[in-house]
Amino acid sequence: MVRSLLVAKPPPSQSLSQRLARLWTLTRALFKGLFTHHAFDHAATMAFYFFLGTIPLLVVISFLLGQLVGRSDLGPLALPLEFLLSGPAGDQLRTELRGLSAAAGSPIAPLSVIGFLWLTSNGFHNLMDVFELLIGASPRSWQRQRLLAIAWVLVTVVIGVGVTWGLLEVNGALDAVRAVPPDATMVARARHALAAGIARSDVAVVLTLIFTLALAAFYRWSVVHPPTIRRRVWPGTFVAMALWVLVSWSFGAWVSTIAHYAVYYGSLASMAVILLWLYLTSLALLVGAEVNARLEGVGNRTMIGL
Question: I need a surface site. Which of 163, 175, 192, 252 has the fewest CB within 10 A?
Fold first, then answer.
């Protein structure tokens, strides 16, 4: 009798209707939280800061690649942008990237480094501000938040240089494998086809994996949470990444098949498309943060406080 009381009973399993009802409640609370916290307005601000910091970030990564490994190719890191743009805007972007790669070989003054860190860290600083507002977290001091934002920039540069160099080396090895003579054997032709497939997909897979891990780390350490709250990181990360992949693929297809944006924006078409894509990307990040806040329970208390 005593032993039966000490054995914990398993929690009752929920029926399908109960799970759907819970999912519907969470979805309603999610959308209500997005509107309550003005996520759509904050996404526009985030997109602006990210846009200002993108070009300096690419320049510094290209410069470090040229200094460390003698190559300044920005192709792997620029793959998402090239996927979004086609036609004249895509050609203009590729021309500008080649110009950045060529210009990155010149020395960078210390004042330029300071300006780069300040300008690029604005995006991370603003993102931490929005996350604190979203979940009602205790705000850090401005100085500490700026130092953390600069640290995130430095980590991004190190990861960007390492990933780009690794992808360039892998693609170079695959190019050598694909260089088979016309009268090659069946095995060599199969190896050639496999290498071609890997070359098309390795960049996308590696970048998606790196973005996922980096976003999970940012969700975990970007804001201060009370010690009594059970942290939730991966649900929001997977939701944000799924939305980002869906938005990027849909937006790229729309730009390449339907939108005649170059007619309206002319030489500014690439900037207009990138800004809109960054806005949708920022919105996906905020949706992921809101999902984590709802699962943690802090979002409900924030809305009550409002």
Answer: 175
